[in-house]
Amino acid sequence: MFSDFAAIKVGDTRALTRTITEADVRRFVEMTGDDNPLHVDRAYAETTAFKDVVVHGMLGASFISTVIGTQLPGPGALWVAQSLEFLAPVRLGDTLTVTCAVTRKHERDRLLELSTTIVNQSGQSVLTGQGKVKVLAPKPTAEMAVALDRPRVALVTGGAGGIGRAICLRLAREGFHVVVNYRSRPERAQTVVSEIAALEGSVRAIAVAADISTVEGVKALTAATLSAFGGVDVLVNNASPGIGAKALAATDWADIQTHLDVQVKGAFLLAKALAPAMAERRWGRIVNITSLAAEGPPTVTWTGYAMAKSALATMSRYLAAELGPNGVTVNCIAPGLTDAGLVGEVPEKAQMLVARQTPLRRLASPEDVAGAVAYLASDAAAFVTGQTLGVNGGMAMR
Predict the structure, then answer these.
(1) Which region among 63-67, 273-277, 286-290, 357-361 has the lowest average model confidence (pLDDT)?
(2) pLDDT in tens, 351-363
(3) Assign residue 348 a region: left if phi > 0, alpha if psi is -120 to 50, beta otherwise?
(4) Which whole number is the average pLDDT over 232-254?
(5) What is the pLDDT of residue 1?
(6) pLDDT at 148
(7) H helices of 176-300, where?
């Protein structure tokens, strides 16, 4: 049991009263070895200015520890510093009142400053001082996720494309209901839904048309998902416009804005809409598909695409830090050149060159990316957040 540091306030005071006996002195001598005759030999003490036995000063002071360890702050307290001034002798039979009061509180260090005083039965101060006590933090325990009365649900943006399709199918095989988001080409999205329906098991999938680069599109996608499944547990931000390779002279800001709106704004709006319910259930996964293009050597003319991927990666780290305390992880997957839709914008000769330069001697497949998503969406990745998992065949190594 540990003290509730937040509940302790400046001015809080605790005290105990103790009558000092010969048995107390004997135990103190046995423990410390301090058998100074002033404390234990009445005949000797009568020859001094005190004229009677004087109780060890530290015996009285030791009861400060009792107050600290049992009352203020109590269990979990670590007494780290103490100044003492002994004002008057303590005699056998004296009744001491030992008081500790909080004079300052240091939130960041979980440290309390205390005034410490001891008075005898006559109200005479026999000791005063200042102490410092650190309140230890209890070992954090993993809070249990709220049990669901439904299978977990995954929403995949850009779910009808090559990588998106592979992600949707893999998550369905892992037992997730799946929302296949698309902006155009409904026939491809419906094909993915049909493929999921043909799998063994009871998972379901729906296709939802929505432009996630707009507030209205995200609202429509969220509403359709909640209506169909009641919640979202895994959000995969995979949607991306074509690379649109252009030299600087031919690039307009609108080209870059398109990438930012889909890849960053869309991911932001969906996270903002869905993360609160994930946090309430204390279980959620956000997986953002970035790219090796944002981490490796620049590919000339891919400026807008890489800018958006870089921004998405940075946003992911910040969301991971903010949402982590509520059981929500946020991670990125950065594929290398992948044998999917966008690769069509890369000349075949360049594709072959990349494959030869990759230690595994091939391009990534959509299934490679989907496998990484499945891991980050699983309970096995419960302690992984704020990370970027490179799926690049060793093209880039950390």
Answers:
(1) 357-361
(2) 677 767 777 777 7
(3) alpha
(4) 92
(5) 56
(6) 76
(7) 186-197, 215-229, 253-259, 266-281
For residue 248, what is the DSSP state? Answer: G
Confirm whether 305 is a catalytic residue.
yes
* Main-chain dihedrals φ then ψ at residue 294, nearest 5 degrees: -85, -10
- The tokens describing 216, both together, are 């209205």
At residue 344, the pLDDT reads 59
Paired sense of beta strands 111-119 and 153-156, if any? unpaired
Q: How confident is the model at residue 339 (pLDDT cuts 50, 70, 90)?
A: confident
Cα–Cα distance measured from residue 247 to residue 303, given in angstroms and rounded to the nearest whole number: 8
Q: Interhelix angle for 266-281 vs 303-323, to 10°? A: 20
Which strands sit side by side in the sheet containing 13-19, from one edge to the other? 13-19, 95-106, 111-119, 125-135, 77-86
Q: Which structure tokens are listed for 9?
A: 């306030």
When pLDDT is averaged across residues 200-228 and rounded to a whole number, the result is: 95
- What distance in Å separates the CA atoms of residue 376 and residue 378, rounded to the nearest whole number? 6
95-106 and 13-19: which strand pairing?
A: antiparallel
Residue 364 exposure: Cα atoms within 13 Å on the Cβ side = 29
Mean pLDDT over residues 57-78, rounded?
95
Beta partners for residue 206, in sequence order = 179
Please identify which residue in the block is written with the tokens 């001598």.
29
Do 146 and 173 touch, CB atoms closer than 8 A?
no
* Cα–Cα distance, 141 to 327 (Å, whole number): 12
**Domains observed in the chain:** 5-135 (3.10.129.10), 153-391 (3.40.50.720)
DSSP 291-350: -GGGTSS--TT-HHHHHHHHHHHHHHHHHHHHHGGGTEEEEEEEE-SBSSGGGGGS-HHH
Catalytic residue among 44, 305, 318, 375: 305
- Categorize the per-residue pLDDT at 346 as very low, low, confident or very high, splitting at 50, 70 and 90: low
For the residues 186-208, what does the mean pLDDT come to? 94
Give the residue among 65, 52, 59 at the shortest CA–CA distance from 30. Answer: 59
CB 95 within 8 A of CB 49: no
Q: Mean pLDDT throughout 62-84?
A: 95
121 membership: H or E segment, kind and range: none
Confidence of residue 239 (pLDDT cuts 50, 70, 90): very high
Residue 364 gets which letter from DSSP?
Answer: B
